[in-house]
Each structure stands twice: as C-alpha cells, then as structure tokens.
Amino acid sequence: PRQPGSGRTIVLVGLMGAGKTTIGRLLATRLGVPFVDSDEEIERAAGCTIADLFQRYGEAEFRRGERLVIRRLLSGPPVVLATGGGAFMDGRTRASVREHAVSIWLRCPLDVLVQRVADRTHRPLLNNATPHAVLADLMRLRHPVYAEADIIVDCGDDNVEHSADHVLHAL
Ligand code: S3P
Q1: Angle between helix 50-57 and 38-46 (nearest 10)
Q2: Is 107 annotated as a binding residue?
Q3: pLDDT (tens digit, 9 = 90+) per residue, 13-62?
Q4: Which residue's alpha carbon is nearest to atom 11 within ligand 1?
Q5: What is the DSSP letter of 12?
Q6: Other CB atoms closer than 10 Å to residue 40's CB: what's the count?
Q7: Hey, which of 45, 47, 123, 152 has its CA 20 to 30 A from 59?
Q8: Which residues contact 5 (CB under 8 A, 6 or more apart)?
Q9: Going edge to edge, which strands form the sheet with 9-13?
Q10: Residue 119 annotated as binding site
Q11: Which residue minimizes the CA distance to atom 8 of ligand 1?
C-alpha cells in the first residue's frame, strides 16, 4: 500500500468537531494504513471514558496520559492519527510530532464546529457552557498554535470526502 507522506505518520490536529476522526478514517482507508484515535487509545489504556478521567484525576492528568499515548504511537509504524483537540497545544507533543510525523490542521469555521459537537461523551470541556462560547474561546487560544502544523486544510464545506481529497492532494 501507498504510505502517507512518504512513509510518515499523519497527525490530524484541530478543534473538537473539525472532523479529525471522520476524515482520518477516510484517509487511512485510502492510504491503506491503520487509523488510530488518541482519545480512544487513552480510554482503552485508562479503562474509563475521558469524562471519567477528567472527573476523577483532573485535566492535567488527562493531558499527561495524552502526551504519553501520542509519543508511543509516534514511535510505531506509520498510521493516520487523529488527536484530541488539546493535544497539539502541548509543546513536547508538538516537538515529537514535528520529528516523527506530518501534521495537518483541519481548519473549520466556528458555526460548522458547533453543529458537529453533539456527541459529548468524550468532551467534558463542553459540559459547563454553551458549545459556541467554549469553542470561540478555544479558537482564539488554539488557532495560532495549530497554525504551526505542516499543512493547513480548510474543512468548512461540511463534506468530509472533499476534505479527505484536499488532504491527499496536499501531502
Ligand atoms: C479536547 C478534545 C477532545 C478530547 C478531550 C479534550 C480538547 O477530543 O481529547 O475532551 O481539549 O479540545 P476531540 O477533539 O476529538 O473532540
């Protein structure tokens, strides 16, 4: 099978609702490599949901686990890796992604994100305010950092097949 980005792992970054998991699965199928979702890996390793992790141990502990899981995945064979929206905000994670993978920011307008974040089970950050307010704040904080990704793909047209095509062309 064709290897992504000349044999390197592809790391998808972006806010909750940007389509990292959905577009990641499509990309992995097209490229013939495994798809991995860091949120799922963390839940598997912890044996509980991300909401439980936040509640029992706090966000900082979740972030520590997230960094370790991503570092382990980056040391393995090439995959398409969808990361949780906060993962790329960690400086050490960004450094290992830079070293081992091609990073792609799936950039998405606020209104599209808001429409897509109905599934809250792994998104405790959306529990205590309106998704619109939370995502608008995160956008201000995170977009300047996501912009450090190797490739930026605009995913606002709400068509995940299109977005996957754009990513494949950009690789
Ligand atoms: C988070 C995003 C979530 C999950 C956790 C924290 C964030 O992942 O990792 O709830 O900080 O943006 P998705 O981006 O896959 O929703």
Answers
A1: 60
A2: no
A3: 999 999 999 999 999 999 999 999 999 999 999 999 999 999 999 999 99
A4: 86
A5: E
A6: 16
A7: 152
A8: 101, 102, 171
A9: 35-37, 80-82, 9-13, 101-107, 151-154
A10: no
A11: 84
Of 93, 95, 107, nearest in space to 146 by CA = 107
pTM value is 0.94
148/105 Cα distance (integer angstroms):
9
pLDDT-derived band at 5 (thresholds 50, 70, 90) equals low
Distance 167 CA to ligand 1 centre (A): 21
C-alpha 83 to ligand 1 mean position (Å): 8
> Any idea which residue has 């754009």 for tokens?
166
Ligand 1 atom nearest the C-alpha of 42 is 9
Question: Regarding beta strands 80-82 and 35-37, do their DSSP bridges make them parallel or antiparallel, or are they unpaired?
Answer: parallel
Give the residues surrounding ligand 1 with Cβ less than 6 Å away.
16, 20, 39, 50, 84-86, 122-125
Residue type, 43: E
Residue written as token pair 């606002």: 156
E-strand stretches of the chain: 9-13, 35-37, 80-82, 101-107, 151-154
Domain 9-170 grouped into CATH 3.40.50.300:
yes
Say yes or no: ipTM exceeds 0.90: yes
